[in-house]
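Posting this for the archive.
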Amino acid sequence: MIDRTPGTRRTVLTAAALAEPAASLSGYTIGVTADRRKDELATLLEARGARVVIAPALRIVPIADDAELRAATRACLDDPPDIVLVNTGIGMRGWLEAAEGWGLAEPLRAVLGRAYLVARGPKARAAVRAAGLKDHWSPEGEGYEEVVDHLTARGLTGLTVAMQLHGESQPEYTAALVAAGARVIEAPVYRWAPPADPAPLHRLVDLIMAKLVDAVTFTSAAAVQAVLRAAGTGADALLDALRADVMAACVGPVTAEPLRRQGVPAVTPGRARLSALVRTVVDELPRRAVNLEINGHALTLRGHAAIVDGELRQLAPAPMAVLRALAESPGRVLSRAALLQALPRGADEHAVEMAVARLRAGLALPGVVQTVVKRGYRLPV
């Protein structure tokens, strides 16, 4: 597991280096909740300078030997479906591989080849074509609602629809198809299960609630739900952090939907690709940076770091929290008691003095953090 949470090591980058793509996420800490492609996503983010916390929210468990999948396959062979909905690429491949093991691959492929194939997204479409089959339609936004609307408009009365499930049942969409007159065969190719080691996920939840990560990436709606479940009674605090301070970046609108229903302004790329997701993070996070002019010096706050006149200085959580609190009210004096509330793990006013001392040392720029005698501290903007 890669786990790079905010630390105290200071890194200085020149302004020219910060302009390079490799440094576009320098100073930011990003959580990764994916499992199957976690290393690929982490590598893409790290290549752009981010610190990465990997915490799989779920794991995929194939069920090739499951009686339900075999029964669904037999139902498709006995009463060939008129329409087949392929939800995921991995699910399509897994279904054919399981059928191969049962000696049913060719009969199943023949049945699928005669059906009206709907591929819900580019990965599903690629798997269909790799199997030598022809897809007939895909929703532009990859949403289930679009699929239901499209199939209902075509007419479903008396037709059979086979639905390759996306890790778990989709009862609301199955019910919509049945209400439109269809008979639905659900093919459960794999299922979601909790991570083998839940500790990293619970740690990531704590980091989100403490606002010690700047963004969290999600590649499935099921992962979103798993993170909310892991938060338990702290789900409201986690959602509050995602609504304001921690950016939620989702691979597509279907993944983002559970968050948007909770009022979280999740960002999504135009295409459901990991590379596009990373580009969205690269574009969006720096826009949230705070920029100030202090005593003739340019100061930018990004993630767990500050950029002073083009030089990036990484800061520990406590001094960074003090700097953010002061930057929220530039020029205003904040008391030690007020700053104590901003510390990740507040103790007493002495902890504030220590955090201010470390902040001044980390910024290495006299006069940026002013002491106002008997009142507190301020940024002299």
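The mean pLDDT is 88. The longest strand covers residues 297-302.
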